[in-house]
Design goal:
The protein starts with a helix and ends in a 12-residue tail after the last strand. The chain is an alpha/beta fold. The strands form 5 sheets. It has an 8-stranded mixed β-sheet, sandwiched between helices. A 3-stranded antiparallel β-sheet has the order 1-2-3. Helix 1 (3-10) crosses helix 2 and helix 6 (153-163) crosses helix 7. The longest helix is centred in the N-terminal third of the chain and has 13 residues, at 63-75. It has helices at residues 3-10, 12-23, 50-53, 63-75, 93-101, 153-163, 223-231, and strands at 28-34, 39-45, 54-56, 83-87, 104-109, 119-120, 123-125, 138-144, 164-173, 176-178, 184-185, 187-189, 195-197, 203-204, 213-214, 217-220, 234-238, 254-258. The chain has a single domain (62-258), classed as Vaccinia Virus protein VP39 (Rossmann fold).
């Protein structure tokens, strides 16, 4: 028997790699630098839907997480010394790096039965529609695919603006699924707490709820106008396509809403 194939039979790791790469070749595979684990790695996708399947071989991050971290490092290079609040983080990618390298990092989840601002395990209890943070107390708010799940986004944008320090920003990802149409509300919640579905319900994964999170809005590019009308702040749209950093997929735009410095009337990215 050929020595190569014989070694495959006795080495399970090599056999698995042979099956994956030869019998079922990846859709995309390339070497590059991962911004979320800060290493030279291999990026690999075994499914054409790159948004969820183009992963880092070392940390398991996906494109939108790497795009967000790249944007933070590019526009806020002093992020390690800032007070950063992230709502609904996951234990990988940008969330993991921010938590490990930023001493002022605060992670939150919303627990309906807990007091806002209290600590639940490793998280602070926070409702984005009514934040418990003081005025102008946060340098960076970070959300990753969260804004499509809130029932009253205008309240969220107002609260983020209220709690940002002058010169601070909301850096976030959200699926902009309506590329050529206005944003569409999919579900609302009445004062009685009952949900009204205006479109067939769609759920995304939720790290603390097995039922998932209901999508309440299909956002379009007019999200920037919605943010301005709610908060008076301008939002910059950052589009990145860079295979060398494993950043390629659909719906991975990074949005940066900036609160201008106290002595500056403009909304320019630092």
């Amino acid at each position: 028997m050929n020595t190569y194939y014989s070694s495959l039979l006795t080495d399970r790791t090599a056999l698995r790699q042979f099956v994956n790469d030869v019998i079922h070749p990846p859709h995309l595979k390339n070497a590059g630098y991962c911004t979320t684990c800060n290493k030279q790695v291999v990026f690999i996708a075994r499914d054409p839907w790159l948004r969820d399947h183009y992963v880092c071989s070392h940390c398991g991050s996906i494109p939108r997480e790497r795009a967000l971290m790249f944007a933070i490092e590019t526009y806020f290079p002093d992020w390690r010394g800032l007070r950063i609040h992230e709502s609904s983080p996951v234990n990988r990618g940008a969330s993991k790096r921010l938590a490990s390298e930023c001493s002022g990092y605060v992670a939150s989840q919303f627990f309906a039965d807990q007091v806002p601002g209290s600590t639940v395990g490793q998280f602070r209890c926070e409702n984005l529609e009514a934040l418990a943070f003081d005025d102008e107390s946060i340098d960076l708010h970070v959300t990753q695919d969260v804004i499509e799940h809130v029932y009253e986004p205008s309240k969220v944008f107002k609260e983020i603006a209220r709690t940002l320090r002058p010169g601070g920003a909301h850096v976030f990802t959200v699926p902009i699924v309506n590329k050529d149409a206005p944003s569409k509300v999919r579900a609302t919640m009445g004062k009685d707490g009952k949900i009204a579905h205006l479109q067939p319900p769609v759920y995304h994964g939720n790290p603390i709820n097995e039922e998932g999170s209901l999508v309440t809005v299909d956002w379009g590019y007019d999200i920037c106008r919605h943010i301005f009308e709610s908060s008076g702040l301008f939002t910059h749209l950052v589009i990145i396509d860079d295979l060398s950093k494993g950043i390629r997929a659909e719906y991975i735009e990074v949005l940066i809403t900036v609160k201008p410095p106290a002595d500056d009337a403009t909304n320019a990215i630092p």
